[in-house]
Task: inverse folding
């Protein structure tokens, strides 16, 4: 089954879609989804408030640190 057909079935079942690799992603031009809601994570002795986003085509994730407690 092709990736496009698999994603069509997943979309109809309200399941997360599989990432497809696009040519633009190889050049570093990604189709980013909006930033997720901030989450508080603990690393060592510090708490961080972070946000994540992913590319809709290749699945690459990006993280940004908003604040450090």
Result:
């Amino acid at each position: 089954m092709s990736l496009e057909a698999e994603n069509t079935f997943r979309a109809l079942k309200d399941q997360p879609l599989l990432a497809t690799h696009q040519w633009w992603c190889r050049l570093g031009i990604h189709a980013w989804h909006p930033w997720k809601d901030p989450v508080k994570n603990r690393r060592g002795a510090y708490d961080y408030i972070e946000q994540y986003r992913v590319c809709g085509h290749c699945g690459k994730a990006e993280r940004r640190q908003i604040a450090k407690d």
